[in-house]
Amino acid sequence: MKAMILAAGLGTRMGHLTRDLPKPLLAVNGTPLIVSVVESLIAAGFADLVVNLAYLGERIEAALGDGSRFGARIAYSREPDGPLGTGGGIKRALPLLGAAPFLLVNADVRCDYPFARLRRPLPGLAHLVLVDNPAHHPDGDFALADDGRLANRGAPMLTFAGVSVIDPRLLEGASQDAFSLTPLLRTAADAGQLHGEHYPGRWLDVGTPARLAQAQATES
Fold first, then answer.
1. Within 13 Å and on the Cβ side, how many CA atoms surround 41?
2. What's the 3-state SS for 162-215?
3. Is residue 220's pLDDT more than 90?
4. Phi, psi of 39 (to 5 degrees)
5. Which CATH superfamily is domain 3-219 in?
6. Which of 91, 107, 124, 158 shows the greatest Cβ crowding within 10 Å of its Cβ?
7. Please, what's the b/e burial string for 62-74 (b: 16 or more CB within 10 A of its CB; e: otherwise)?
8. Sign, CA torsion 94/45/149/157
């Protein structure tokens, strides 16, 4: 199974920290966010990686190279006209990912989720890892049923962790332009084709300077 790391965002919420550095290269205790993700994926047996690039993407490519120093193979999906969003970025990268389901993870996620657990048959069109709602996202994203299906409404609502397995069929007919993956996930949920699991372990979305500082403090 291949894995894709979403790394093309502008990182605007980071303010001056991302003026000259893409957010995936911001470091926690000396290690860039994206390097930690790469190392976690490789430790879980994922050696074929795809990284999408846009804002200051050349710096990410220079930092990771072809992946050989990590024991991996890294291919790059470049978005030269600017970020295509989560959905558009995946759509552009599909020729590199192939026809089989792939693991998808955000470059700014800090978690101890065992990625190897996702190496299993995929029911439906996507499987999402969900976490308890953080303070910055109290309403959550999806409701998890006892049978593992996800719904757009229900109780309790949980938050999408930015870790998932995606079947490329989810993006059939999707635009080549910039768009978010979320509407496709919600359509899949309404069709009973979206599954997930609740993960109670360590997780943090490093989306702001305050949460970057939190990661530094809790992992030092």
1. 32
2. EEEEECHHHHCCCCCCCCCCHHHHHHHHHCCCEEEEECCCCEEECCCHHHHHHH
3. no
4. -65, -40
5. Spore Coat Polysaccharide Biosynthesis Protein SpsA; Chain A (3.90.550.10)
6. 107
7. eebeebeebebeb
8. negative
